Amino acid sequence: MSTPSIPEFIDRYAGSMHSLLDGISASNANGPLPYAQAIEHAVEMVRVAQAANRKVIMVGNGGSAGIASHQAVDYWKNGGVRAIAFNDASLLTCISNDLSFEEVFSAPIGRFADPEDIVFAISSSGSSKNILNAAEAACRAGCRLITFSGFLPDNTLRCQGDLNFHVASESYGLVEILHLYIIHTILDAKLQCFDARDIFDRNKPVS
Fold first, then answer.
1. pLDDT band for position 99 (50/70/90)?
2. Residue 101 has what pLDDT?
3. In a domain, 113, yes or no
4. How far apart are CA 88 and CA 143, in angstroms?
5. What is the total count of domains within the chain?
6. Contact 95, 108 (CB under 8 A)
7. CA–CA distance, 164 with 33 (Å, rounded to integer)
8. Domain for residue 96, yes or no?
9. SS3 116
10. What is the mean pLDDT of residues 103-113?
11. I need a surface site. Which of 3, 69, 142, 161 has the fewest CB within 10 A?
């Protein structure tokens, strides 16, 4: 492959983003779902959790950890939903050292999750062992599970959730951007369609 110019790269990058955005896949235990219907289901899950004073727990590694931290704050600050990400440095290093890195999210989920909480499991590859363990711990705790994965269409995480979103790319950057987009969409749809907040104008009240 020849080295592209910056304008050529930008054209390809933007084109890939548009194509992947149109091709986001969603599914549940019964099979594929239209994307809009999956977002409706996710919004309803979050609203039910909020009404029952349950939590949204978000877990991810690396860039996905950044998404988890950012969105956990947005969900409670803007959405009024109790939300948390287990990304504290002491927690991560303690569990990694005393137990194992593979248990860095499953252990706190086992301690802090309540039945009917929602776990957002975010993994670009869909094969990170600590995220798969977190998904299993969420199910044991009686939580609802929404997964966000990319790369191979048959990755393990993609079949674990009550709802599953998949981005068909092996680019970390594109997958992470679109995972953030989907998770933001769930919250913003709740705010705009049910909470009378105008997400297109700094979350002002809808007039």
1. very high
2. 97
3. yes
4. 22
5. 1
6. yes
7. 9
8. yes
9. coil
10. 98
11. 3
In the predicted model, what is the mean pLDDT of residues 19-34?
A: 97
Q: Report DSSP state, residue 84.
A: E
CA distances from 10 to 5, 6, 13, 20, 21 (A): 9, 6, 5, 15, 16
- Looking up tokens 């194992």, which residue turns up? 100
Compute the distance between CA of residue 6 and CA of residue 41 in angstroms, rounded to an integer: 40
- Lookup: tokens for 109: 């989920």
pTM (2 d.p.): 0.97
Domain residue limits at 73? 19-198
φ/ψ of 28, rounded to 5, equals: -135, -165
- 24: confidence class by pLDDT, cuts 50, 70, 90: very high
Q: Is residue 5 part of a domain?
A: no
- 1 has a pLDDT exceeding 80: no
Nearest Cα residue to 101 out of 146, 141, 147, 65: 65
Pairing status of strand 144-149 against strand 163-166: parallel
Domain containing residue 28: CATH number? 3.40.50.10490
